[in-house]
Amino acid sequence: MLAALHISNFVLIEKQDIRFSEGLNVFSGETGAGKSILLDALGLCLGAKAEPKMVKVGAEQAVVSAEFVLNKDVFSSLRLVFEEAGLMLEDDVLIIRRVVPTSGRSRAFVNDEPVSHKFLAQLQDYLVDIHGQGAVGQLARRAFQRDALDVFGQLLEQKEQLQIAYDQWRHLCDDRQRFMIDLEALVGQRDQLYAEYEEFDQMLPLAGEEEQLAEQRQTSQKRKKMVDDLVSLLALLNGDHGAEAQLIEAFRRVGRWGEDIPDSLTSLEEWLDKSLELVREAAGQIEDVLVEIDADDRTLSQVEDRLFELRDLARKYRVPASQLHEHHNVLRQRVHQLENMTEQLRVMDEEIQQALEGYRKLAKALSQQRKYHAQILQEAIHKELEAIKLGGARFEVGFAEREAPSAAGSDDITFMAAMNRGQDLAVLHEAASGGEQSRFVLALRVALGHQRQVGVQIFDEVDQGIGGAAADAVGERLRSLSKHAQVLLVTHSPQVAAKGDRHFLVEKKDNGIDTVSQIFVLDHEQRIEEIARMLSGDRVTTEARKAAARLLL
Predict the structure, then answer these.
(1) More confident residue, 525 or 243
(2) 380 vs 388: CA distance, rounded Å
(3) Which partner from 120, 376, 471, 542 sits 20 to 30 angstroms from 57, CA to CA?
(4) Quick check: 100 and 49 in contact, CB under 8 A?
């Protein structure tokens, strides 16, 4: 709901803070008092064009802010709109502010965050529906008319099934289109594709093979220094002048001593023998390791050959070496696709046709239901029109068949109207203007029920040119509508004004310096006085006051 409207230096209003109630809020006042200024101020907060002449004479800028309290559904919907715009909506209070300078561009803010005027216009669909002054709000849009009929006829489940069928058909069509694009590219590259696939088939790159070979090669290269050290060590052990030769020479010399060897060296030959044995054992182990490494070196040569082949293949076809296996699979799929294209197309076309037939069956059933409920809606609206002095008006739901499938079905739906007998039907927002149009929309809103209602409904001059029983009927319908949505109403009818939950009086006064418009909330006694004025004119009589009091009962 619209909780408050704060206006500063806007047209004739110097400063005004207006707080609204739920239900029916009525605005009355003499002609020219400035009632339409309120709607202009609210429109400014919803993206209407700002003009320097809106700034009150003598002021530097006009500021208008509207405070909305959002229900759960509107909050959820608006949060998505905010997220798409890169903004956050954190609670259920939404404050829209518009600043209009006498020169330069106007500025817009939502919860103190700067936004574009286009973004404000997006918000209106979720917040306010304005009828009158040549506008019929949401009901002027065909998409809304179609949705309103579907809600009226309780056709949402059928519509959802149709949406699923349409999405399935659309998905299959998109798949076929992508398939044909790929196929055309494949046909143009047939020879190159087969040559590349054959080369990959001969190479048969494995998943992760290049990385594994590179690691294996790196490990082997690191062992090269160790091999050099082992060869040097082996030379020290069993070379011409190595440890083994030295020990043999030592053993020979000790052996020449015979029995002359000192007692303290009797174990020397044993030590030399053991040392020689250990040296030979160590040399043997080193030789075994070198033999193994030599075999690994021969394997390394094979690793390097394979690695270089894989990398050459990757460079040739500009594929990362780590993705050769995956690319081979892609080539295999493309070759298979090329070889089986006729059969694949036949299967795809068959699936598309089946999906289209399923969609058309659901679309036809939905269209029949729409036409049935359109007749019921027309009858309901004609009853409402009789009550509000538009008995000569006609309403009709126009149907035209769409050529192409759509998510909404096969129907183009248009609400048509004629305000007088003998007139041709025209689209709703062109059929009438002013009060007649507002009353027609009111009848339509009441007939549709509380479904599809935006939280704030605004009617301007809905009672223009009527009185008595017709005005009372309009008031009753506005009161009924206000049970499901907040209603703001600019009225000249005492019967309608008396139905309000909160009554505002708009007055224009000359303070000796300039002319200003002021807005007051009326208490019960003040309402009697204002409604009496509306009944009798400037000269309020006792009878008028009594009649006003009766209207307020």
Answers:
(1) 525
(2) 13
(3) 120
(4) no
Over residues 387-404, the mean pLDDT reads: 88
287, 234 contact by CB (below 8 A): yes
> Bigger pLDDT: 70 or 129?
70
Confirm whether 31 is domain-assigned: no
Q: Using CB atoms within 10 Å of the CB of residue 256, give its burial: 0 to 12 exposed, 13 to 18 middle, 19+ buried.
A: exposed
Query: How many structural domains does the chain have?
Result: 1
Assess contact for 501 and 22: CB atoms under 8 A. Answer: yes
Domain that holds residue 315: 189-339
What is the average pLDDT across 254-280?
78
Q: Which residue has the tokens 């203007």?
A: 433
Percent pLDDT > 90 in the chain is 41
> Following CA atoms 525, 526, 531, 534 in sequence, which dihedral angle do they give, to the nearest 10 degrees?
150
Is residue 395 domain-resident?
Answer: no
d(CA 500, CA 525): 14
Which H or E run includes 24?
Answer: strand 24-28
Alpha-carbon distance 305 to 285, whole Å? 30
| Residues 477 and 486: beta-carbon distance below 8 Å | no
Instruction: Note the pLDDT tens digit of each residue in 492-518.
Output: 899 999 999 999 999 988 877 788 889
Q: Is residue 309, in this structure, part of any structural domain at all?
A: yes
Secondary structure of residue 14 in the 3-state scheme? strand
How far CA 151 is from CA of 385, 449, 453, 527, 536, in Å, comes to: 21, 9, 11, 38, 44
Please give, one letter per residue, the 3-state secondary structure of 262-298: CHHHCCHHHHHHHHHHHHHHHHHHHHHHHHHHHHHHH
Q: Tell whether the model's pLDDT for residue 124 goes beyond 60.
A: yes
Mean pLDDT along residues 185-214: 86
Q: Is residue 111 part of a domain?
A: no
Beta 93-101 vs 515-521: how paired, if at all?
unpaired
Tokens of 84: 């798409």
Question: At residue 380, what is the residue type?
Answer: A
Summarised one tens digit per residue, pLDDT across range 461-481 is 787 777 888 888 889 989 988
pLDDT over 70 at 158, yes or no: yes
Which H, E and C letters describe 61-116, residue by residue?
A: EEEEEEEEECCHHHHHHHHHHHHHCCCCCCCCEEEEEEEEECCCCCEEEECCEEEC
* DSSP reduced 3-state for 131: strand
How far apart, in Å, do the first and last CA atoms of the chain sit? 26
DSSP assignment string, 496-511: HHTT-SEEEEEEEEE-
Between CA 443 and CA 385 the distance in angstroms is 6
Which DSSP string corresponds to 314-383?
A: HHHTT--GGGHHHHHHHHHHHHHHHHTHHHHHHHHHHHHHHHHHHHHHHHHHHHHHHHHHHHHHHHHHHH
Give the number of other CB atoms < 10 A from CB of residue 359.
Answer: 25
Q: Is the pLDDT of residue 547 over 90?
A: yes
Of 132-141, 211-220, 226-235, 440-449, least confident by mean pLDDT is 132-141
